[in-house]
Amino acid sequence: MIGFGRAAMETFPWKEDFSVGVREIDMQHKNLVIMINNLFDAMREKNGQEVLSEIVDRMVNYARTHFSTEETYMLKYNYPGYAEHKAEHDEFTAKAIDLRRRLNDKTLVLSLEVIRFLKDWLSNHILVNDKKYGPYLNSKGLH
């Protein structure tokens, strides 16, 4: 088992630009960055395939926990972009479950495919769409 609680070599470091201004959600996003860095580390050490299943399992768990947190706050505070945002969460969850299915079926899944998927999620979902709800939730008193 690899150590997910620690920061890896930080090929992809956490930046304050990623913050949405809600502590609980920011901590969960930091865990995604740790997943990316752990997979980068494993690839550098030439054992990316050995840890891939564990990373994908963490992605599925991350999706359940993190998306539940975001969606609960969005519903509680009547966030107007909820439906669109949830649809993106559903796409991520479906992709993570598909990756896990492919791994279980011994179908080829490349470490690089997972890295690209996670980095794309961070760049396009968190830095764009999650940043939209941050000020809204902050205006409702959630920090």
Overview of the structural elements:
With 143 residues, the chain is mostly helical. The chain has one domain (20-139): Up-down Bundle (Four Helix Bundle (Hemerythrin (Met), subunit A)), CATH 1.20.120. It is 72% helix and 0% strand. α1 runs antiparallel to α4 (111-139) and α2 (48-76) packs parallel to α4 (111-139).
Give the overall silhouette.
globular
Uncertain stretches of 5 or more adjacent residues? 1-9
Structural class: mainly alpha
Task: Tell me the number of structural domains.
Answer: 1
Amino- and carboxy-terminal Cα gap: 34 Å
CATH class: Mainly Alpha
> What is the third-level CATH name, the topology?
Four Helix Bundle (Hemerythrin (Met), subunit A)
As a percent range, the share of helical residues equals: over 70%
Q: Strand fraction band?
A: under 5%
As a whole number of angstroms, the C-alpha radius of gyration is 15 Å
Fourth-level CATH superfamily: Hemerythrin-like
Q: What's the β-strand tally?
A: 0
Largest sheet: none
Average pLDDT taken over every residue: 86
- Spell out the helices and strands N to C: HHHH
Reported CATH architecture: Up-down Bundle
Number of DSSP helical runs: 4
